Amino acid sequence: MKNNxxxxxxxxxxxxxxxxxxxVYADIPQTVNFQGFLIDQQSEAxxxxxxxxxxxxxxGDDESDNKLWQETQNVLVKDGVYSAAxxxxxxxPNTLTFASPYYLGVQFNDVEFLKTEGKFIPLTTIAxxxxxxxxxxxxxxxxxxxxxxxxxxxxxxAEGNIKITLPSSSECADKVFTIINIGNNTITIETNGSxxxxxxxxxxxxxxxxxxxxxxxxxxxxxxxFSKIEPDSIGTIELADSSISISKITGAGNTVLxxxxxxxxxxxxxxxxxxxxxxxxxxxxITNTELAPGAVRTSEIVDGSxxxxxxxxxxxxxxxxxxxxxxxxxxxxxxxxxxxxxxxxEISYTELAxxxxxxxxxxxxxxxxxxxxxxxxALENGTAGHCIxxxxxxxxxxxxxxxxxxEITYTELAxxxxxxxxxxxxxxxxxxxxxxxxVASHFGGAPENGNQGASLLSSxxxxxxxxGFTSTxxxxxxxxxxxxxxxxxxxxxxxxxxxALDVSGSVKISQVMKLTPLTTAPENPSAGWIYFDSTSQKxxxxxxxxxxxxxxx
Length: 553
Prior knowledge:
- The protein is mainly beta.
- Helix content is about 5%, strand content about 25%.
- Among the domains are: about 1-135, Immunoglobulin-like, CATH 2.60.40; about 135-225, Jelly Rolls; about 245-275, no CATH class; about 455-505, no CATH class; about 510-553, no CATH class.
- It is elongated and about 160 Å long.
């Protein structure tokens, strides 16, 4: 009884309010006035006050269906009667078109739904008013899942890789549907299976904002505002560069081809669609008919992969051949084994490439005079003692190597041509030396330029070093045992004397060592210094801390 009373007031007041709104106002209402009667378990009107009521609209009559809209209001109840304007807190979306049956769910204070006979309250009389809110009075529906169009649908906003199925055209005479792809995937449009779309079983919208409008006609559907692309109508000129991506290629079952795995290739399914496949070549699968001319390059050949049996013989695969044989062309693209032999005098200069004869190719004693090219013929044996001379054109001639007196001038000698081994002992006299032609570095030991006034002295081993003699000094440079430096010090056994006479080693005096007597001790002495003191007439030595007499009286 409770539910019947409440249901009666819901339906009566809902129909009254929406009808009243449409007849009175020129504008389309944005809310729906709803009234009801609330009683308790004793069928008495509930106490006056404010109650929290949640209203929701569903596409079915219980909670297992889809909830399309919801809002919660604080509603004043007086003598059990309450009134609410639906969509006051949360506006109805445009997708809520009221073109198909909807049901109202009502909850008081978040408890169970108010139902009649276990079902939500049907809303069946307000559809025409809210449907007129859409473009031209047409129903707009959004879907992101596979969807079968209903007779009441008009405009479908679709997204995702989904299918839209058209109803039977015979049940929708002169019906117009518009499908718009609002996403980035491909929308596939299909018929119920027995009908067509302009003679096609299906169509697709592959680009965002692509759209297609169809109208029912006889036993099928016709496109409106959608140009059908005839077979073979798109050529190279019509395609922009890089316009065909993988997502534009049809896979099996008119699906969009996925990206595939690295290394896979496209394989035709035989029905205009493609699938990904691996490249697998079975053993002995590739024959000469599969290979295009020049198809096998170094980069395609695995090391050690070409054996004799992979070569084409005269009528079949080439055999292994005998040891020492070589491959010979048959002149028709096939090969045969042949023996390698060179007949006597078979190789002439025309067979030899430039630089082809190297030391390792020549056997010992293989080059004799007749193997060399003379002026127009083979070179003859020549006269004993003669040598071979180039004619400047790649041929040779014999030449008497005897050099006449004064025949060699500086024009015949190449730079650095005369070495020690080329000069006979005593061959260089003063008259053979041109002015300014011999410099210091030409002598054995390659001495440097030396100091002005110095002389070349023999080092005793055939080489030379700089030295000099004057009336007051002897200077020997380059000798590791005696060095005279610019400071006037003389070193024996050292190249850097620090004193007037600096001896590295023992000193032997066979006669008298004369010391000049000093009246004062030397300054800044070092341990081991000796001098003759003129005052005490004694030799003194420095022990590292003080001067001491070498004897006492």
